[in-house]
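User: What would this chain look like folded?
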Amino acid sequence: MKRILILVVLVVLAGVAGVVVRSASRGTDLRGLVSHQNVSDVRDEIRQKYELAPGARVELAGLNGPVKIETSDTKIAEVYIERTAPSQEALERRKIIVEADANSLQIRAEKGDCGFFSRFFGSPTKERVTLKLPRQISLYAKGMNGSFVSSDIDGPVEISGVNGRVQIASATGRASFKGINGSIVVGLKKLDLEGVALSGINGNIELQCGANVNADLETKRMNGRVISDLPNVLIDKSKRGSYWARIGNGGSGITANGINGNIRLTRGPELASASQN
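Assistant: Here's the prediction, encoded as structure tokens.
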């Protein structure tokens, strides 16, 4: 009887070992498939130049990847977009449309015709966008999946629906940030009557104020604090989730609604050096 029990145990162990080996082999095959699908081995580039008039509207929409904008005293807009995907088919499923005239530059992504499974289960195409633009423009961006970084903008700025960090070195005039899932850093040289609007932000916000910025800050439904590193700033917390602050002599409004993070008032290094000259 003991011999029979020992034989049964040995048979069971052998069966378990066989299952483990087969599972490991299948796991290796699956890992190979996954790693092959994740390799971005197909790429293409878009390089274009346009001449823009002062105050031209620059609009970006639906891009899947980081955006970097460099501005200077020029009339020429230079567009460089690098696209990558695991296959040529995946690359062709997604189109990048660039349209421009003297008064506008539009860069947007559009999905091409494809089947049901390709649309919902296909590997995504990624874009890395670098723009060299005139400083005097109106900048608009929406539906972006990646960080959005820009140097000085001499004009209004509107950014919405971004999944990533947003950083604007300095803005002049109206500024609006809505539906941002990431931190925000924006330099404010001066404000017009429309001021700055922040809403639906999931991340910390840093407002780098110029020496000549005079504004009133009001927050509602805020899960965080208002902190100031600036002199001559009065902060009052009237009730939970609400703050009021006066920057300098007060004036243009800065409104913040639905913020999950802190708001810090600072003097940016470039703005501080400019105020001393």
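Helices lie at 2-37, 88-92, 116-121, 269-276. If you want, I can go into more detail on any region.
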